[in-house]
Design a protein that fits this description.
The chain is mainly alpha-helical and 129 residues long. It contains six helices and two strands, in the order αααααββα. The protein has a two-stranded antiparallel ribbon. Helix 1 (18-29) crosses helix 4. It starts with 17 loop residues before the first helix and ends with a helix.
Length: 129
């Protein structure tokens, strides 16, 4: 995770907390084997997440369709361990030179921003050699 939120990412100057909470929600959904489903739901519903309280409310409304145990999820989301995992992931991104998303690495090398399909095909063909 590389949330654009200074609450959990030292590379970001502003801190509002919602993006860090969404990163924790996605992380914790993985413990219930729902990581991809929840990440897809988060991306489709981004305008609905204006505050931490709003995220909680949206999760409550959608817990059945997402197949989540909300109490278990929120215990994980609020834990210091999960906060540290997200901060650690953001720091790993900083250490790797990530300045935004999407960022792409191929064979351990960062692909310059503005990558295009022809560039990716060239990199792929060179990697096969």
């Amino acid at each position: 995770a590389f949330p654009f939120d200074g609450e959990c990412n030292a590379a970001i100057s502003h801190a509002e907390g919602t993006r860090c909470m969404l990163a924790r929600v996605a992380q914790c959904a993985g413990q219930q084997d729902k990581a991809w489903k929840v990440q897809e739901w988060i991306f489709k519903n981004q305008p609905n997440f204006r505050s931490k309280e709003n995220i909680q409310s949206e999760l409550e409304k959608n817990q059945d369709s997402l197949g989540l145990n909300l109490e278990e999820l929120m215990t994980c989301v609020d834990s210091n361990e999960t906060r540290e995992i997200i901060k650690g992931q953001a720091q790993a991104g900083i250490d790797a030179g990530i300045k935004g998303t999407p960022s792409l690495f191929i064979n351990g090398k960062k692909v310059p921003s503005g990558f295009s399909l022809p560039l990716l095909k060239k990199i792929y063909s060179e990697a096969k050699k």
